[in-house]
Specification:
The chain is built from ten helices and six strands, in the order H-E-H-H-E-H-H-E-E-H-E-E-H-H-H-H. The protein is α+β, with helices and mostly antiparallel strands and 279 residues long. The protein folds into two domains: 13-79, no CATH class; 115-273, no CATH class.
Length: 279
Amino acid sequence: MKNNINNNFENENQKNEKKMAEVEKKSAFPILSVGITWFVCAIFFPITGPTRFFLTALLSYVVYLIVKSKFPPKKIEIMMEPEKEKAPPKVEKTEKTEPAKKENNIRISVPKMNVSKFKNVLLYLLECCAGKPNVGETVLNKLLYFCDFNYYEIYEEHLTGARYQKLPFGPVPQQLDNIINQMVAGKQLQRIKTEYHGFTQTRYLPLMKPDLTQLSAAEKTVIDDVIRQMSDWNANQISEYSHKDKPWRATEDGDYIGYNLVFYRRPPFSVRAYPEDED
């Protein structure tokens, strides 16, 4: 299509260059004869007045026609100046373009639970806290919560990927009952009821070792730090502490707690050294 447009413009330019204009080249003799006639009449005609003027004009016209017939105007052709070439219209190629992707710097966390890792973290916590009478079901839930959320704050990656729901006594991991029932049925855990400060509490005893090959050194370090800080707290202490944590406070009752909320933490809850904290 583009070649056809260019060829049409070239043909038009060639025609313009060959255009000729016909003009008449008039001889100067007829006009000159009129002047000579007036001069001769002025000298030789003795008549004066309007009659003289009329006769002179008539004679001049006759002489003009005679001379013009002897020297007719010639038609000649002259070449016209070629028109400036017009640039052919640009034929733009239309390409399909994909809509620009909007840049979004907000990290959207979509946790996906790793059940196998969750079981091993649970076994490791129970193994490390064995013999501590305060570590019942309530304390265990909070230890799991801080392991997951502290790890995400530091590395921006999920540890177990469990989702935690905001319930009256603190954050509780989803599917916890199902997972524990599986582990009890599989002889990995033993569920027992004990008395602690006059209250009945549910405790879990590990019946097998955790598979530490599923935990990286960084993951194990975060878990050990949580155990060191909180494993001696009773249910009330660790519940009150979790209720002051920013992710818990920013979540509506019954909703799942967003991992991204850890980046709004302030000391003593924040476990990450941010640039402004170092200045």
